[in-house]
Fold:
Amino acid sequence: MILPTKAMATQELTVKRKPSENTLQVQASSPVALGVRIPTVALHMMELFDTSVEQLYSIFTVKDLTNKKIVMKWRCRNWPEEHYATVTLNFVPTLGQTELQLDCKGVPVCKEENMKFCWQKQHFEEIKGLLQLTPPKWLN
Structure:
């Protein structure tokens, strides 16, 4: 059996910061195959929360709200060890609520329903419960 290998530690990386954004671009000096190749799908989910964009955003990160978007790598424990999906959370203000739009690329084909269930039950519903326990900032 041949197992996937990690990228070589000796490889040089080029890091660029765009002056107008708080994002980094990392480029390898030569092509590198990271992770493992498996069939994947993309998911899109939306959920409404009875709170402000700022309060919902603060549940996910302590960083300042700059662009109403969080992009992160995501991996479930039962996925291949070096496989990660890319999750993008967009926080969209609506009338008295916030719509959270989740886009996930790179979910293993046989795991998409499990991934949807995980986000719905372990994240969205838990956050809604937390928000019910937390008084709005204007009451403090």
